[in-house]
Amino acid sequence: MGTFTLHSKTGKPMPSVSNGGIPGKKCGTIILSAEELGNCRDVATMQFCANKLDKKDFFGKSDPFMVFYRSNEDGTFTICHKTEVVKNTLNPVWQSFAIPVRALCNGDYDRTIKVEVYDWDRDGSHDFIGEFTTSYRELARGQSQFNVYEVVNPKKKMKKKKYANSGTVTLLSFATESEHTFLDYIKGGTQINFTVAIDFTASNGNPSQSTSLHYMNPYQLNAYAMALKAVGEIIQDYDSDKMFPALGFGAKIPPDGRVSHEFPLNGNSDNPHCSGIEGILEAYHQSLKTVQLYGPTNFAPVVNHVARYASAVQDGSQYFVLLIITDGVISDMAQTKEAIVNAAKLPMSIIIVGVGQAEFDAMVELDGDDIRITSRGRTAERDIVQFVPFRDYIDRTGNHVLSMARLAKDVLAEIPDQFISYMKGRGIKPNPAPPPYSPTSHTLQTEI
């Protein structure tokens, strides 16, 4: 716990000391308190309605909403949920909402939960209607006479002898389910299939020249190899056979020099799998000697390539991750958007690492963090694309180990949530983890 005084000039928090800020100018105090959250995976889903709430608006009824508070160990309360506002009614029915049990009561079923009811005002000066207290254990009883609460305004109660309440709030439904984690599925046997697609377009520069992003420096890895190694070495541990399809796009390939946007780096169309990350790097270096960098930069073929495999296994036993490493401007934006919208329904995620100094505006658009991508009036079911620019991770001190660790962390940050969103959306639960192998549980008999 700590106390800070706002510096009146900079607005930045500073430790509260006598000579901080401008003398005689104190802007206020911020108190930070913390409590370690318990390891409770349950998520509670509940819905409430209210009846005969106090009328607060002069020209109308009320615009009620509720605020839920978790009680802390020190007796204070912390906001953990706000409902939506239901306009112009004294008998609102709020939408059901889900909240982690650890956020509601930190896994302590008897801890007080305080609920305040307000009438919303446009200027933010919401009128207090009343409050009540409950607990997780009480709520878990579900809809019953125990979960009808009188909303009480303490000030009104003190002033008016005949005051009963300011309305009632009723629990309509309550359910809990355990939230499964990414590792629960991995322990249960779900396999992560990792595919790499590398950009071989001419904009990367001639691989024999040191200015090229594909330049094969005998002393250090180029940007493509570094990005591949950083991400691949972590994700390969989630794939039991360590055999990875590796593709290239945007090059003229032997023997006839046709342009391909979906060719195997190892030259084997029947089996594009490479053994481990080292196998992919070896195939990548061999490809640079045999193909001619060309163009345009088309993503849709490699996205659809992986989507074909993902569409065949939608039972939760496998999940597909496509890593695209590229130097820039995409040529088939409309087709790629359509491919991603289609792939968003499948057990699949796409990581795009941008290398070089190009503008990556299109890649940011494909990464649906801010605005979910659409194609032909259809919106992607979920966000499955994560984009990171490689240049943000080049350490000026030359410490590539730290740089690549940060790159891998940020690149893989969204995969578990994307994975869970697919499994949850399909109602797929993880298989139970097999019991740990114990050599002592097996007795060997030897006949002499």
UniProtKB/TrEMBL annotation:
Keywords: Calcium, Metal-binding, Repeat. One of its GO terms (molecular function) is calcium-dependent phospholipid binding. InterPro entries: C2_dom, C2_domain_sf, C2B_Copine, Copine, Copine_C, VWF_A, vWFA_dom_sf. GO terms for cellular component: plasma membrane. GO terms for biological process: cellular response to calcium ion. It comes from the Eukaryota. Residues 26-149 form the C2 domain. Pfam families: C2 (PF00168), Copine (PF07002). Residues 193-419 form the VWFA domain. Belongs to the copine family. This is Copine-5 isoform X1. It comes from Python bivittatus. The gene is LOC103048694.
